[in-house]
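User: I'm preparing a small set of examples for a lab meeting where we compare how different chains pack in three dimensions. I only have the primary sequence for this one, and I'd like the structure in C-alpha cell form so I can line it up with the others. Please keep the answer compact; I'll paste it straight into my notes.
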Amino acid sequence: MSHDHDHDNELDPFTARVRALETILTQKGLIDPAAIDVIVDTYETKIGPRNGARVVAKAWSDPTYAEWLKRDATAAIESLSYTGRQGEHMQAVFNTEETHNLVVCTLCSCYPWSVLGLPPVWYKAPPYRSRAVIDPRGVLEEFGLTLPADKKIRVWDSTAELRYLVVPMRPENTEGWSEERLAELVSRDAMIGTGLAQRPEIEGQPA
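Assistant: Understood. Below is the C-alpha cell output for the 207-residue chain.
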C-alpha cells in the first residue's frame, strides 16, 4: 500500500501524469502555476485539515459542543463556518478506550474536503478501499498503528450522502491547554482513523 510519502524521484503514476499535464498547460500559457499553488495551499492549509483539527479541539474543550457534534455534526461543524465541497452532510464518530474508528470509501473516494482538505493519495487507492473493510487491523499496522487485541475497530463507509469525521481520543496531560494548542495535536490521519492524536516528542524531555 502506498502511504502519502514524498519522493522527489519516485512519483506515483497518477502524480506523474498530473505533473506532466501541468507542465504542458503551463508551456501553452493556459494555466498560471502560481494560481494553482494558491488553490492547493488553500485546500491543504486553510480549508483543511486545520479546520477539522479545530473542530476536534473544540469538542475536547467544550462538553456541550461535543454533545452537539455527536448529535448533529453537520450543524456543529457549520457553526464554525466549515462547510462546502463534500462536507454538507457529516457524522462525527468518537474514539474511546474500547473502540477505534476508521473511515473508508469503498466505492470511490468520498471525503469531506471542507473539513479535512485534500484527500491523501492512499485514501483513493484500491488497496486501502478494499482492505480497510476486510482487514482493518492489518491496514492500521501498515500505518504504524498497532492497537490492543481487545480494542474493537469499527469501519465507517463514506458515501455521496454522508461523510465521517473521527474524533480521536484526547492525549493525556493536556489539561488546561487552549483550543489552538490542542488543534496542533490533531493530524489528518487521526481524523480518518489511521493515526492517533499525539503530543509531540521534545528532545531531552518526555512528551
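A couple of notes for your slides: The CA atoms of residues 6 and 207 lie 27 Å apart. The beta strands are 90-94, 99-104, 152-157, 163-167.

User: Perfect, thanks.
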